[in-house]
Specification:
Distance between the termini of chain A: 38 Å
Helix content of chain B: 25-40%
Order of helices and strands of chain A: EEEHEEHEHHHEHEHEEHHHEEH
Oligomer: heterodimer
Number of strands of chain A: 12
Structural class of chain B: alpha/beta
Bound molecules: adenosine-5'-triphosphate, adenosine-5'-diphosphate, iron/sulfur cluster, magnesium ion
Number of helices of chain A: 11
Largest sheet of chain B: 8 strands, mixed
Number of strands of chain B: 12
Largest sheet of chain A: 8 strands, mixed
Distance between the termini of chain B: 50 Å
Strand content of chain A: 15-25%
Helix content of chain A: 25-40%
Shape of chain B: globular
Radius of gyration of chain A: 22 Å
Shape of chain A: globular
C-alpha cells in the first residue's frame, strides 16, 4: 500500500497568508487572509490525492504554494528530497520541471495571442534556452514533440497553427494538458480541471487524465468541488475547511465512513443523479455561511456551523487525530478523552489556563 | 413529487422559436420548444452550455436583447393568455411579480448601488401600490428571516456586495417570495455556490413550490439536482427538446441516445467503481448556426442511421407523457419517406 512507499512530495505546516492593507497611502498591513493555515500531508508516487472543500477554503492557494507560484509564508514543501521553499532559483526551476499545473478555466489560462503550437512548446523552449534539459533540443525536435503531445491528448495536429478561441472548452483543456505534459513531469497539480466543462465533456477529460496517469506513471493532486468526481479519480482525499485540512483518508474509507461533521455534511449535501436515491436521502442542511478566513481562532474553525459542536470546541483548536494509519481527522469527537460533558464555563476556564 | 394532472396549468410554452442574427449567420438558439408547468410543480431543463436553456427562459420573461435576438414563433401562455402579444407595459406588470426569476449570478439582478431594503421595498410596492413603505419593509424582513438571513433587521440595510453569493441568492428568493409569484424561473441558481449552500437554496425553492404552490422552472446542468428537485424534465440539445419525461421515467428509461449517454457519463458517489473508465459521449456539441435539417446529435451518436443525417427526427410519445425526438422510434415507412424527401430536396439545391 502507498504508506510503505517513500513520499514524492511532503508538505509540512504550510502557511500562505495574504496581507490585508489599509486603504491609506502608507498601505499599513491591518491583518491577513489566512488562505492556507498550517497544512501537512504526503503524496506518494503514482497516486491521486483529491482535495475537496468549499469555495475560498484554500484549495487553489495550496497547489499554487506547492508549485511556488506563491512564495509560502512559512512551512516546507519537500519534493524529491529538496525543500522548494528554501531552494535557490536554479534548483527550484529544475525541480519545478517535474511539477506542472492544469487550471480550471480553459478560457483564461491560455494566452489568446499564441498559437496552439507555441502554447504547448513554450515550457520546452524556455527550459531548452536556459539549458535546464538533459539533452538540448533542436527546433525540429520541439516540433515533433508538440505533434506527439497533440495526438496523445486527442487534438488533431493539423490544428497546431490555430488560436485558443477557435477551440471549444474541452479542446482548450486538452491544450492545457498537452502543455503540462511537455516537460515529462512527475506530478501534475490539477486545479478544478473539469469544473467548467459540460457533463459530456467532463468524462472525456477524466478518462484522458486516467489514461495518461497509467501510461506515464503520473502522480496527481486533483482539486474539485464535485465529490463524485473526486471519488472517481482519487486514491486518497483531503477535505479542507477555512485553510485547514479537517480530514484526510484513503478515498474508499472516507466515502464509506466520513468522520468529521463537515465531511459528513458535505457528502450528504452532494446530489446523486438518481431520483429514487435522492428522494429517500436524509440531508444534513448546515446553517450559516463559510466565515471569512481573516482571523486566527483558538477554537474549532467549523464551530459556528457544526451540528455536533460541544462547548469545549469553542475554545480549543482540535489537533489532527489518528484514527488509523490511513485516516486522520481534526475533531474533538474522536479524542481519547470525552469532552461532551464539559460545560462552557469549564471549557473557557481550561482554555484560559497557561499552557505547559 | 409526482405530477398531478388536475393541478392548474400555469404556464404553457408552445413551439417557441428564438433566433439571433449574427455576422456568422442565423443562430437558432431555440427552435421549437414546448412544455407545460402546473401549480406546485417543478420542471427541470437540462442540457449542455449553448443548448438554449437560458434563451428559452429569457424568451418566457420577454428579456431577449433585440436586436440581435427575436422570438420568431410560438406562444407562451400564462394563465391562458399569450404573453408574447402583451405590450411592454403590460409585461412589466407580470415580470418580477407573477413570474419572477433568479439568475446564476444574483449580482446581475440586484442593483449594486442600492441597499437590499430599498430594492425589496420597491419590488413589493411596484406591484402592490397600496402597501406602505413600513409594511413593505416589515414584510421584506420577514422574508429574509424565512430564507435564513441572520439578524435580518440589521442586514437588510446592507448593500449587495456585503453579502456572500449564497446570501445574495437567498435575497433573490426572498424577493420572489415577497411578491407571491406564480412562476419562478431559476436559471442555474446554485451553479456558483458550494454544495452545502446549494442544499440550503434548493431546500428553499422546494419549500416555495410545495407550500406556496409556485410553479418552478429549474435550469441546471447537474443531473443530481434534477433528480432531487424536479417532477418533470426536458433535455435540450442544440435548441430543441430531445426528450421530455417524468423524472423517474427519464432516469429509469432514458430513451434518447444523448440522454442515455449523459446519465451514464457522470460519476456517481453511491455506485462508482473507482478506476474504471467513465462512459463518454465523444465529440462536441454542434454549432447552431445554419444547422441543416438532420438530427443535431448524429455526429456524436453511436446509433446514427442514414436518415439521421438528412431529416429532423419526429417526436414520438412513448406513453405517460414520455416524449423522445429520435429516429430509432420511427417506423420503417416514415424513415423511408423522410429519406426520399430529403434526397429530392438535396438534389434540388
Ligand atoms: N492573491 C491573493 N491575495 C489575497 N487573498 C487571496 C489571494 N488568493 C486567494 N486569496 C484568498 O485566500 C482564500 C483561499 O482562496 P483559494 O483561491 O485558495 O480558494 P479555493 O479553495 O481554491 O476556492 P474556489 O473553490 O473558489 O476556487 C480566499 O479567501 C481568497 O479570497
Ligand atoms: N445575445 C446573443 N447574441 C447572439 N447569440 C446568442 C445571444 N444569446 C445567446 N445566444 C446563442 O444562443 C444559443 C443558446 O444560448 P443559451 O440559451 O444562453 O444557452 P444555455 O443552454 O447555455 O443557457 C447559443 O448558441 C448562444 O451563443
Ligand atoms: S471539533 Fe467540535 S465543533 Fe469542531 S467539528 Fe468536531 S464536534 Fe464540531
Ligand atoms: S435520431 Fe439518429 S442520430 Fe439522432 S439520436 Fe436518434 S439515432 Fe442518434
Ligand atoms: Mg480555486
Ligand atoms: Mg445559460
Amino acid at each position: 500500500m502507498s504508506t510503505t512507499k517513500k513520499p514524492l512530495l511532503e508538505v509540512r505546516d504550510l502557511k500562505q497568508h495574504f496581507p490585508i492593507t489599509s486603504g491609506s497611502l502608507l498601505q499599513r498591513q491591518v491583518g491577513a487572509i489566512r488562505a492556507v493555515d498550517g497544512i501537512s500531508f504526503d503524496v506518494y508516487p503514482g497516486e491521486t490525492l483529491g482535495i475537496v472543500g468549499e469555495s475560498g477554503c484554500g484549495k487553489s492557494t495550496t497547489v499554487r504554494s506547492i508549485s511556488q507560484l506563491y512564495k509560502p509564508t512559512s512551512g516546507s514543501v519537500i519534493f524529491n528530497g529538496i525543500d522548494l521553499v528554501k531552494a535557490d532559483q536554479r534548483t527550484m526551476l529544475k525541480a519545478r520541471r517535474d511539477i506542472q499545473m492544469i487550471f480550471q478555466d480553459p478560457y483564461a489560462s491560455l494566452d489568446p495571442r499564441m498559437t496552439v503550437r507555441s502554447i504547448i512548446a513554450e515550457p520546452l523552449v524556455i527550459y531548452n534556452s536556459r539549458r535546464l534539459l538533459e539533452t538540448p533540443l533542436s527546433s525540429l525536435d520541439i516540433e515533433r514533440k508538440v505533434e506527439d503531445l497533440m495526438e496523445r491528448v486527442g487534438l488533431n495536429k493539423a490544428f497546431k497553427n490555430r488560436y485558443p478561441h477557435e477551440f471549444s472548452g474541452g479542446q482548450r483543456q486538452r491544450i492545457g494538458i498537452a502543455r503540462a505534459l511537455a516537460l515529462n513531469p512527475k506530478i501534475i497539480l490539477a486545479d478544478e480541471p473539469v469544473s467548467a466543462l459540460d457533463v459530456s465533456i467532463q468524462s472525456q477529460i477524466l478518462n484522458l487524465l486516467g489514461d495518461l496517469q497509467k501510461e506515464f506513471g503520473l502522480t496527481y493532486i486533483f482539486i474539485a468541488h464535485d465529490l463524485a468526481v473526486i471519488q472517481h479519480i482519487s486514491t486518497r482525499v483531503a477535505v479542507m475547511y477555512l485553510g485547514k485540512i479537517v480530514e484526510i483518508s484513503e478515498a474508499v474509507q472516507l466515502y464509506d465512513n466520513p468522520l468529521h461533521p463537515y465531511t459528513t455534511a458535505l457528502l450528504s449535501a452532494a446530489p446523486i443523479p438518481d431520483p429514487k436515491v435522492e428522494r429517500e436521502r436524509q440531508r444534513i442542511i448546515l446553517t450559516g455561511d463559510v466565515p471569512s478566513p481573516d482571523k486566527e481562532r483558538n477554537g474549532c474553525y467549523f464551530y459556528d456551523r457544526c451540528p455536533k459542536r460541544m462547548p469545549w470546541c469553542s475554545c480549543h483548536l482540535p489537533p489532527m487525530l489518528d484514527i488509523d494509519p490511513k485516516h486522520q481527522v481534526a475533531c474533538w469527537l474522536y479524542d481519547k478523552e470525552d469532552h461532551s460533558n464539559v460545560t462552557m464555563e469549564e471549557a473557557l476556564a481550561d482554555a484560559a489556563k497557561p499552557k505547559t | 413529487m409526482s405530477l398531478n394532472p388536475n393541478a392548474k396549468v400555469v404556464l404553457e410554452v408552445k413551439d417557441l422559436k428564438t433566433y439571433f442574427k449574427t455576422d456568422a449567420g442565423i443562430v437558432k438558439a431555440v427552435d421549437g420548444v414546448s412544455f407545460t408547468v402546473r401549480e406546485g410543480e417543478t420542471i427541470g431543463i437540462v442540457g449542455e452550455s449553448g443548448s438554449g436553456k437560458s434563451v428559452t427562459n429569457l424568451s418566457v420573461m420577454r428579456l431577449i436583447p433585440s436586436p440581435p435576438g427575436k422570438i420568431v414563433g410560438g406562444e407562451v401562455l400564462f394563465e391562458g393568455e399569450d404573453i408574447l402579444k402583451l405590450t411592454e407595459k403590460e409585461m412589466r406588470e407580470i415580470r418580477g411579480n407573477k413570474i419572477s426569476m433568479i439568475f446564476q449570478d444574483p449580482m446581475t439582478s440586484l442593483n449594486p448601488f442600492l441597499k437590499i431594503s430599498t430594492q425589496m421595498v420597491e419590488t413589493i410596492r411596484l406591484h402592490e401600490k397600496h402597501v406602505t413603505k413600513q409594511e413593505a419593509l416589515k414584510r421584506s424582513i420577514e422574508m429574509l428571516k424565512l430564507v435564513g438571513i441572520p439578524s435580518a433587521e440589521k442586514r437588510i440595510q446592507s448593500y449587495p456586495h456585503q453579502f456572500s453569493g449564497g446570501m445574495r441568492q437567498r435575497v433573490m428568493i426572498a424577493m420572489a417570495l415577497s411578491c407571491n409569484a406564480q412562476v419562478l424561473v431559476a436559471d442555474e441558481p446554485t451553479t456558483a455556490l458550494d454544495v452545502t449552500i446549494q442544499a440550503q437554496i434548493l431546500e428553499l425553492i422546494d419549500k416555495l413550490s410545495t407550500k406556496m404552490g409556485t410553479a418552478v422552472i429549474l435550469i441546471t446542468h447537474d443531473l443530481g439536482v434534477v433528480a432531487g428537485m424536479c417532477d418533470q424534465v426536458c433535455v435540450m440539445y442544440a435548441g430543441r427538446v430531445v426528450e421530455k419525461a417524468l423524472t423517474e421515467d427519464l432516469y429509469a428509461r432514458p430513451s434518447h441516445p444523448y440522454t442515455e449517454g449523459l446519465i451514464k457519463s457522470v460519476p456517481r458517489m453511491d455506485t462508482t467503481k473507482k478506476g474504471n473508465r467513465l462512459f463518454s459521449i465523444e465529440g462536441q456539441p454542434p454549432n447552431v448556426i445554419d444547422l441543416p435539417p438532420c438530427c443535431p446529435f448524429h455526429p456524436r451518436c453511436i446509433k446514427a442511421m442514414e436518415v439521421c443525417r438528412h431529416a429532423y427526427p419526429p417526436i414520438k410519445d412513448l406513453g405517460n407523457g414520455h416524449e423522445v425526438a429520435c429516429w430509432l422510434y420511427a417506423d420503417e415507412a416514415t424513415k423511408a419517406k423522410a429519406l426520399a424527401e430529403a434526397n429530392v430536396e438535396e438534389k434540388a439545391t
